[in-house]
Amino acid sequence: MRKALFLSRLLPLVALASGILLATPTLELQLSSGASTVTVADNGVGDSSPVTGLISYSGAVGQWDLNVETATSYPVEGSTSDPTLSLLSTNLAASGADPLTIMFSVSGFTGPIPTGQFLLSTQSGMQNIFGTSIADGTTQFSLYYDPGNTLFATTDQLGSTFNTSAESYSNSFVTPLSASSYSLTLVAVVTHSVSTGESGYTQADFEESVVPEPGFYGLLALGVGGLILVAQRRKKATTKV
Each residue of 199-227: pLDDT tens digit? Predict the structure, then answer.
């Protein structure tokens, strides 16, 4: 009787643990411009990469021609508890002024991020619009997380929106994250203010990963230095005796 009761209580826990261990983040890439929207799931239709954790897409979206759009996350980078997202856009060319919105979303992350660590987000790239202006375009990055663990949800924004119209650019920010189960969604908006006969390209790179909190290494060094000082004093005291 006791054995049966024990097993009845143990089995749900085993099932729950198995579900946690087998849980794998879900990746999807969504590209939209004007009335055209393309959604590509990891290893789904439109994904030219056979690698799980890496989505690669080439093709047309509205007035845009994408040479290569690559999005990577776990298991290629990071883990379920170490959220890492990378988005690389190469040679995005537009034949009109409609903006291109790129959304890369990953669900299935578990947390919270350990104390003393933050999310580090970096953006870099270049634009070269040929025509009346060498840099006649804009790039915008935003990062969101959703404690409901839903793909493409923009419940809470992490950090601030980064906007640039520079020909080349770079930016970074750090932010804490306390959710225990969540999705992350990167939103990038690229605009080419081109008229008929003009052309150009944008190369954009976004990376997000977990890093020690700013000042953490300084505090660590201070603590180690203190331990060394105490050890030296104890050694001197022992020598005198």
Answer: 566 777 878 777 765 544 443 444 445 44
Q: Is the pLDDT of residue 156 over 60?
A: yes
**Dihedrals phi, psi of 105, to nearest 5 degrees:** -125, 140
Residue 85 contacts residue 73 (beta carbons within 8 Å)? yes
Cis peptide before 176 (omega within 30 of 0): no
Mean pLDDT of 109-131: 70
pTM for the predicted model, two decimal places: 0.75
